[in-house]
């Protein structure tokens, strides 16, 4: 067997420039050079942290750190990361001696003369930074990924210096707490309670966390697994959601644990598995060791939830639980490999779903979960390889996106299919065992997998992992005089014009009147002659990527689209609808032809996941690629088709999806009237299960659609909300829903202040309201405002917020005016951050494509 040795030699050859001057290591953020030196210099790290949480969120949090560590090299000072004001540092002592505070470029500098070779003890009194504390009136939670730990407390904020933690929290006495270890003891002191936690398992700084506040708590032991009892903190107050969801949430964690222990042959590696459900959480979830955090709306579902929503919840829990092995236990050395933890979390989550949802077509679920999102970024000018370069951890947040969350699992599934499932699993077992409680990079994994397969792993991963973009396939099919296939040739070229070739496997379906003949394709070069097809009868249609495994844009006969809705295989239908949309975007199919095909799908489709693809793509074509004349032509037809089908005898899942599409386009007079009657409960659509959130969303749509009673509707909608956290969210959104342009303008201006952007998911929702297609004439003046503020958003926001900000401002447009504004901005800002330019290109991909598509239809 071949062996592949790492070509990233600076992770192996220790360490370049260790004797360099202080100025060379001391930069803003954590450079690779500083990280390498500290990894060589520092070991056996333990943080003893205490935080005194006051009653009011505007008061300072007084904190203490006792840092125990071993130093083996004193040629350089000790650099601790603390990205806060110097005034927040109150005192520092080293080995029992008080020393001067030196704080430069976000680092505490402790001179070598204050340190000793071997065990050292550093003590620091400080005021905790607020940036990552997410403080609310009656609760707070930390969120420190990827490099935000140093905005909270002094630390070595790099993933390959793992440490243990001992935490003490003083909180208002009616508050509950959760952290990475169990509470050892607690003491009441007046209006406050002090909690002392045990020592945690080893973890990277970005995985340290705690949550505290007015939470309710429930503990269960859902199974005989090694995790023992599990505890959940939550704020949800809807009795139906609590009853319908609580047991399921615990059981899904246990089922995920059971699968992962069996798959990896490694027992759950940490002390406990607890979690907190948080109403305003920025992400779906975050995999903190011993204290996972989730967005509350993702966990708590009621009896109106569709199968798709239940599946998404289960996948989220499986994703975060998978991180316990992939990311938390075996952690990347440097954040350029952050995609590794995400690809395994998503890849394993997809596997975990199989036994939990035995009736679900999991190949279909995988396709719908990953392909559309991956294509959305990979086809744009902002595409990038799965593995990206990272010189400094301060830029690590920019690495996140659909390429690592969605394209990477597609890559991993192709790799598993190429290697074989058994060989792949054996390699993963060896990987977990070898790097247990340690750090590894992609090349370490490649070396292990390479020993399990005759596949040339280095060559294979070079294009899939280290190159960007996707394949565009074309074909040449010739028939003989008897209408049999004489030649079937497929060509592959890179969309970006490069010489890249993606080795991959997929199926082609030849559709006949009474059967579909499937052919396996193993593509390894620029072209392929499909010998198995020769001599077969001419099919009615050729369906590429029949099994949904292939990645790229495939040939499609634009004159014959009616067959898609009639395909019996649901994966084939999903893949064909997706391929139709991608062909529309590259100009092979007209928007009107694609729209008509999607309408047929909406009229006939009875699989919820496939229907979502058809309805989402139809919605995008309607709002983004139709001219105003085309919208006027099709609006009433689409509205009537949807409302009529809602009256049919269909499953609740299908009806919920259809109603979501109807609600988004019912802005005509008759449409608004029907939507209002449903919202006001004057009309009850049979088997359409709507919950409180659905009625809130209807009210917001009616306001945007300028219903005559919009003000009354919004007041009534607010009064109907029973959850106080959701009331606050709705109050925040109200200015963005106002019919008064001056109110909406004042809201946009208020976003200049980062304090008004703290609830990022709320801001994103509000921006979507402001920049809705029906309001863009009045909102387009804020395109440049939004672009100018992007670098500030990057500096103050969490990892997904810059892209969300762009998606919900300029990303909502398809007009020539908006396109020109982007071009003007880029021309006037030649030094605009390359990282943010990539995000901008991703967010404006449909804007760019609309310039050609709309031009052709006018």
Strand order of the largest sheet: 5-4-8-2-1-10-13-12
The average pLDDT value, as a whole number, equals 95
**Percent of sequence in beta strands:** 15-25%
Tell me roughly what share of residues is in helical segments.
40-55%
Count, helices:
30
Note the gap between the termini: 60 Å
Radius of gyration: 28 Å
Query: Which shape, going by the Cα principal axes?
Result: globular
What features would you describe in this structure?
The structure is a single chain. By secondary structure, the chain is α+β, with helices and mostly antiparallel strands. It contains 30 helices and 28 strands. The protein has an 8-stranded mixed sheet. It has a 5-stranded mixed sheet with strand order 15-16-17-19-18. α9 (421-434) packs across α10 (442-450). The longest helix has 26 residues, at 239-264. The chain is globular.
Compact overview of the structure:
The protein is of the alpha+beta class. The chain contains 30 helices and 28 strands.
Protein topology:
Blueprint: H1 22-25, H2 32-41, E1 42-52, E2 62-71, E3 78-81, E4 89-94, E5 97-99, E6 103-104, E7 107-110, E8 118-127, E9 139-141, E10 163-172, E11 176-179, E12 183-189, E13 192-197, E14 210-213, E15 216-220, E16 230-234, H3 239-264, E17 275-278, E18 285-286, E19 292-295, H4 296-299, H5 307-322, E20 330-332, H6 338-356, H7 362-378, H8 402-419, H9 421-434, E21 438-440, H10 442-450, H11 457-466, E22 471-479, E23 485-494, E24 504-511, E25 516-523, E26 527-529, E27 541-544, E28 552-553, H12 563-566, H13 570-585, H14 591-604, H15 608-625, H16 628-646, H17 652-665, H18 669-679, H19 692-704, H20 710-720, H21 724-737, H22 741-750, H23 760-770, H24 776-779, H25 782-788, H26 790-796, H27 801-807, H28 816-828, H29 834-843, H30 845-857
Parallel strand pairs: 1-10, 16-17, 17-19, 20-21, 22-28
Antiparallel strand pairs: 1-2, 2-8, 3-7, 4-5, 4-8, 6-7, 9-14, 10-13, 11-14, 12-13, 15-16, 18-19, 22-23, 23-26, 24-25, 24-27
Helix pairs in contact: 3-5, 3-6, 5-6, 6-8, 7-8, 7-13, 8-9, 9-10, 13-15, 14-15, 14-16, 15-17, 16-17, 18-19, 19-20, 21-23, 25-28, 26-27, 27-29
């Amino acid at each position: 067997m071949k062996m592949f040795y790492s070509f990233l030699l600076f992770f192996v050859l220790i360490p370049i420039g260790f004797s360099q001057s202080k100025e060379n290591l001391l930069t803003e953020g954590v450079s690779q050079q500083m990280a390498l030196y500290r990894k060589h210099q520092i070991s056996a790290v333990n943080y003893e942290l205490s935080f005194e949480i006051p009653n009011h969120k505007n008061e300072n949090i007084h904190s203490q750190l006792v840092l125990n560590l071993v130093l083996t090299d004193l040629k350089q000072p000790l650099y601790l990361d603390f990205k806060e004001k110097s005034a927040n540092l109150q005192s520092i002592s080293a080995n029992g001696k008080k020393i001067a505070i030196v704080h430069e470029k976000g680092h505490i500098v402790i001179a070598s003369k204050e340190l000793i070779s071997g065990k050292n003890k550093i003590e620091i009194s400080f005021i905790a930074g607020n940036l990552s504390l997410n403080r609310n009136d009656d609760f707070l939670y930390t969120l420190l990924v990827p490099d935000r730990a140093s905005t909270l407390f002094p630390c070595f904020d790099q993933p390959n210096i793992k440490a243990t933690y001992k935490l003490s929290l003083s909180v208002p006495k009616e508050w509950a707490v959760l952290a990475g270890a169990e509470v050892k003891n607690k003491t009441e002191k007046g209006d406050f309670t002090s909690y002392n936690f045990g020592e945690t398992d080893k973890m990277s700084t970005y995985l340290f966390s705690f949550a505290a506040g007015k939470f309710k708590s429930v503990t269960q032991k859902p199974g005989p697994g090694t995790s023992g009892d599990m505890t959940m903190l939550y704020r949800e107050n809807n009795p139906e959601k609590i009853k319908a969801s609580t047991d399921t949430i615990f059981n899904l964690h246990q089922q995920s644990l059971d699968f992962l222990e069996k798959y990896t042959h490694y027992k759950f590696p940490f002390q406990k598995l607890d979690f907190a459900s948080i109403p305003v959480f920025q992400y779906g979830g975050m995999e903190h060791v011993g204290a996972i955090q989730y967005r509350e709306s993702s966990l708590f579902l009621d009896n109106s939830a569709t199968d798709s929503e239940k599946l998404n919840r289960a996948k989220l829990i499986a994703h975060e639980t998978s991180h316990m092995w992939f990311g938390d236990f075996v952690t990347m050395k440097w954040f350029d490999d952050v995609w590794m933890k995400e690809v395994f979390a998503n890849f394993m989550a997809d596997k975990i779903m199989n036994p939990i949802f035995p009736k679900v077509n999991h190949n279909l679920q995988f396709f719908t979960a990953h392909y559309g999102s991956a294509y959305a970024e990979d086809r744009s000018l902002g595409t990038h390889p799965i593995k990206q370069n990272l010189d400094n951890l301060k830029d690590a947040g920019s690495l996140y996106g659909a390429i690592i969350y969605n394209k990477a699992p597609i890559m991993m599934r192709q790799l598993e299919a190429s290697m074989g499932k058994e060989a792949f699993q054996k390699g993963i077992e060896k990987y977990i065992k070898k790097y247990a409680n340690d750090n590894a990079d992609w090349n370490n994994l490649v070396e292990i997998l390479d020993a399990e397969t005759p596949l040339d792993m280095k060559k294979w991963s070079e294009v899939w992992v280290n190159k960007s973009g996707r394949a565009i396939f074309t074909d040449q099919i010739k028939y003989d005089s008897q209408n049999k296939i004489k030649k079937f040739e497929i060509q592959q070229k890179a969309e970006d014009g490069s010489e890249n070739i993606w080795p991959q496997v997929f199926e082609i379906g030849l559709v006949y009147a009474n059967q579909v003949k499937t052919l396996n394709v193993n593509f390894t070069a620029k072209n392929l002659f499909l010998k198995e097809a020769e001599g077969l009868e001419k099919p009615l249609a050729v369906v590429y990527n029949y099994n949904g495994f292939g990645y790229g844009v495939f040939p499609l006969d634009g004159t014959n689209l009616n067959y898609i809705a009639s395909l019996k295989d649901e994966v084939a239908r999903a893949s064909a609808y997706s391929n139709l949309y991608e062909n529309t975007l590259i100009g092979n199919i007209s928007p009107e032809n694609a729209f008509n095909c999607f309408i047929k799908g909406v009229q006939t489709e009875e699989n919820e996941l496939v229907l979502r693809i058809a309805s989402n793509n139809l919605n995008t074509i309607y709002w983004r690629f139709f001219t105003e004349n085309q919208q006027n032509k099709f609006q009433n037809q689409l509205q009537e088709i949807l409302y009529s089908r809602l009256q049919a005898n269909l499953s609740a899942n299908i009806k919920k999806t259809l109603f979501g599409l109807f609600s988004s386009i019912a802005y005509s007079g008759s449409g608004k009237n029907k939507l209002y009657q449903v919202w006001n409960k004057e009309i009850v659509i049979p088997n359409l299960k709507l919950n409180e959130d659905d009625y809130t969303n209807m009210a917001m749509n009616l306001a945007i659609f300028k219903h005559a009673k919009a003000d009354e509707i919004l007041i009534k909608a607010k009064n109907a909300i029973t959850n106080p956290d959701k009331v606050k969210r709705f109050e925040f959104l109200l200015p963005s829903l106002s019919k008064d342009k001056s109110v909406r303008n004042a809201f946009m201006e208020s976003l200049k202040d980062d304090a008004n952007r703290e609830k990022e998911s709320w801001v994103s929702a509000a921006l979507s309201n402001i920049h809705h297609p029906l309001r863009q004439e009045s909102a387009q003046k804020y395109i440049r405002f939004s672009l100018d503020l992007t670098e500030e958003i990057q500096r103050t926001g969490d990892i997904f917020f810059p892209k969300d900000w762009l998606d919900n401002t300029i990303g909502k447009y398809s007009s020539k005016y908006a396109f020109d504004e982007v071009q003007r901005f880029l021309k006037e800002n030649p030094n605009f951050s390359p990282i943010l330019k990539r995000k901008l290109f991703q967010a404006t991909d449909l804007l760019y494509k609309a310039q050609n598509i709309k031009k052709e239809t006018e």
